[in-house]
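Here is one chain, start to finish.
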Amino acid sequence: MKQLIRHILSGAALALATLPVSAQTVGPQGETATLSSAIVVADENIEAVRAGGHTAALLWHDQSDFVNAVTAGATDEFTRFGIEVVATTSAGFDAAKQRSDIETALVKKPSIILSLPLDPVTSAAAFEEAKAEGVKLVFLSNLPSGYKHPDDYAAIVTDDLFQMGKQAADALAAAMGGKGTVGWVFHDAAYYVTNQRDNAFKTTIENDYPDISIVAEQGISDPARAEDIANAMLLRNPDLGGIYVTWAGPAEGVLAALRANGNKTTKIVTLDLSEPIALDMVRGGNVAAIVADEAYELGRAMAAAAILDLLDQDVPPFVVAPAVTVTADNVAEGWMQSLHIEAPKSLSAQ
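Its structure:
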């Protein structure tokens, strides 16, 4: 956190203070990040919002614990203001299905749509009718092509991307005693979310840990290749102290490679919660830590941004929710902080 900013927004609906903002995390169009804790609708607006008879549709990209937590955060905030959720959908990562979901939801005349646009071009066309009908749009992580703030949408809400990568670097360095060699498995695709997280890890290691060297780098686009990538990395660098993996899916492949090699010393740090990865961690295996976002808070902030837009209040274009480092010592608390659910029973039984 390198700077303090004050957002002065009209009306009493948005309660803001001078808050630290991650200068390193930027939006898809270079937007400055505002912390989600600043996106608050004051209680004094409850009756005015309730009187509007507003409704909301949650049109998601997929179904998962993460999506369930975002939905819960949004639904709780909407409930506080008497806003009924009239549609909740999952597109299964199918952009055409998402377009159909939007068309179906619009029949119900929602005042608000929360969604993660799957494809910039397809999504831009898909949300045109919603824009034309004056629906308040808040996007999770992605932005449809050509959309401009504030005319086309209220806000983008996502993780504090730099902090996720930085915390992963700090956790791996701690597990390695602040020295040794590291492998860096990054997402080999142009996607600002994973790119910023991955690069923040690398930047933090290079800037903050002079006794740790990144000696192996490999991009990955297909998680199924993770085990092969890890095997090749270990063949050339058998003494690797740690491996950073861009997210939990491919981290499972890296863990499989370490186990197949009988390697019990190389530490893994990855991003996003995963029961198999966490199970290795609580059993004292290779996994040192998992860095996750506060998914429930993402949903709450998305809903609050939409409500503020309904109230004709200014909303910052790019909002980030905090990151949480989950280790064997705080796995139950970390799961609750991120997803607002109990950790899997397998993790507490250890």
